[in-house]
Amino acid sequence: MRPLAAAREAAELVKFAHTAFALPFALIAAIAAANGWPPWPVVGWILLAMVGARTAAMAFNRLADHALDAGNPRTAGRALPAGRVGRPFAWALVGGGAALFLVAAWRLNPLCLALAPVALAWVLGYSYSKRFTRLSHLWLGLGLGIAPVGAWLAVRGAFALPPLLLAGAVTAWVGGFDILYSLPDEAFDRAAGMHSLPARLGAGRAIALARLLHAAAALGFAAFAWRIGGWGLWAGTAAAAALLVWQHTLIGPGRLERLDTAFFTANGVLSLVMFAFYLLDIMVRA
After folding, report:
1. Crossing angle of helices 136-156/161-181, nearest 10°?
2. Model pTM greater than 0.90?
């Protein structure tokens, strides 16, 4: 495979564009921990840690779900089941991503390095969670919620309440939109014995639970803004709440034709808008 084609397939395999979901929250936490923009070497290692962990987790997820993806019409065209890349290629991404994550954690501080294997085990373990628990959506949420806590630890080297509040909000936000994202697979998951909430509860009750989780996420973002302060976080929280409401106007039981807009547009923009408002606030105050 040519290098450019390999890079394109790797980006598709690990859904590199979805990094926009968690990375802005890691940067928000790092800025809050530093009371301003952190040193560039710290930011660089945080970015590399995020890319490494996410690459390893997504590639491992594709390996774990290889047979499921091949049997699901919605996912059969993905790179691995479609045969555009082989399992050795995916395993190389897992190993390379994990190594990058561990090296970045080592370069940040001893606490980050000590907790890195735990974080890595959690994000890799998500790939099998839907096989035995209905809480797989929250498992994924916490996997992304780790990002702001890790970024805070990278800057300060100690735990505190604010990043935990942000982690809780991110967990609820991701858990909610993962429930929505799994709605088209309701029948397939039920037939395959997967424990997604739509398969277990039906679309109507699953959507209602997603709405509750997104309400909790908005409250969590507000709690973080209250603890840290600044108009940027409050503006970002208001924008996030509006986007959460908007995505729930787009879908409902039997109304999934705008699911991609709800998932990719509303949620991709949410984290970026919150980061942009906070960064502008910090720049104005500097």
Report:
1. 150
2. yes
